[in-house]
């Protein structure tokens, strides 16, 4: 089953884009490194803040994705219609199992931010590959998703006149989706509420407030 059929069956009417928490009834929002700030008093990047962000993102990823879980690594690239994207740099940079780079699928979608003025000139190239967590350099990829607004490596990579890509981790075994929107936090949605129960215990252990959708 490909990503399109999987989403249609498991998350009907969901558009795989930021604000999953708003779209879907069963989900949580988590703020990373709450109480800390990106910059120090002398306007330098705060290493304590970023280390906290990385550790929380990684521990949550391990909680949500087991070694044998089947997953889709999905990337949305938002670009002008004139650009011809063959494959996102995400797969060349962060997939360890290089055989999988030949299995990356692509579909063209409308620009997913239709409320923006320039939307008519843009489209979304959505890439995906089915894999397991051991197939990807997930710690580096998690870091890259947190670096959208900062000149820190690693980066997801984007070309001129394109928007920063979005990366979604879709667990096809546990039927949940994990999305880090940037260093500030993430969203997790699931097909059923009981699939999110482990996050409550994790949040308590980590001292993190988990915002469940009412």
Question: Could you explain how this protein is built, in words?
Answer:
It is a single chain. The protein has 214 residues and is α+β, with helices and mostly antiparallel strands. Helix content is 25%, strand content 25%. It has an eight-stranded antiparallel sheet with strand order 3-4-2-5-6-7-1-8, with helices on one face. Helix 3 runs antiparallel to helix 6 (197-206). The longest helix is centred in the first third of the chain and has 18 residues, at 47-64. The radius of gyration is 17 Å and the shape is globular. The model has no long low-confidence stretch (mean pLDDT 90).
Can you give me a brief rundown of this structure?
With about 210 residues, this protein is an alpha+beta fold. Helices cover about 25% and strands about 25% of the residues. An eight-stranded antiparallel beta sheet has the order 3-4-2-5-6-7-1-8, covered by helices on one side.
Tally of separate helices = 6
Q: Compute the gyration radius: what is it?
A: 17 Å
Helix content: 25-40%
Averaging pLDDT over every residue, what do you get?
90
Give start-end ranges of low-pLDDT stretches.
none
Oligomer: single chain
Beta-strand content estimate: 15-25%
Report the end-to-end length measured between terminal Cα atoms: 32 Å
Strand order of the largest sheet: 3-4-2-5-6-7-1-8
How is the main sheet built?
8 strands, antiparallel
Structural class: alpha+beta
Number of strands: 8
> Which shape, going by the Cα principal axes?
globular
**Helix and strand sequence:** HHEHEHEEHEEEHE
């Amino acid at each position: 089953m490909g990503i399109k059929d999987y989403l249609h069956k498991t998350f009907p009417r969901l558009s795989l884009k930021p604000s999953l928490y708003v779209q879907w009834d069963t989900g949580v929002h988590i703020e990373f490194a709450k109480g800390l700030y990106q910059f120090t008093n002398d306007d330098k990047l705060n290493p304590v803040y970023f280390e906290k962000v990385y550790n929380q993102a990684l521990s949550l990823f391990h909680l949500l994705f087991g070694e044998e879980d089947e997953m889709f690594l999905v990337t949305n690239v938002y670009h002008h219609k004139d650009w011809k994207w063959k494959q996102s740099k995400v797969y060349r940079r962060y997939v360890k199992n290089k055989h999988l780079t030949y299995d990356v699928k692509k579909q063209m979608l409308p620009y997913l931010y239709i409320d923006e003025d320039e939307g008519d000139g843009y489209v979304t190239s959505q890439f995906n590959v089915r894999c397991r967590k051991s197939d990807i350099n997930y710690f580096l990829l998690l870091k890259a998703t947190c670096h959208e607004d900062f000149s820190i490596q690693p980066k997801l990579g984007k070309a001129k006149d394109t928007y920063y890509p979005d990366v979604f981790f879709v667990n096809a075994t546990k039927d949940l989706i994990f999305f880090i929107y940037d260093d500030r936090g993430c969203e997790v949605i699931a097909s059923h509420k009981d699939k999110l129960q482990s996050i409550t215990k994790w949040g308590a252990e980590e001292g993190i407030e988990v915002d469940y959708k009412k």
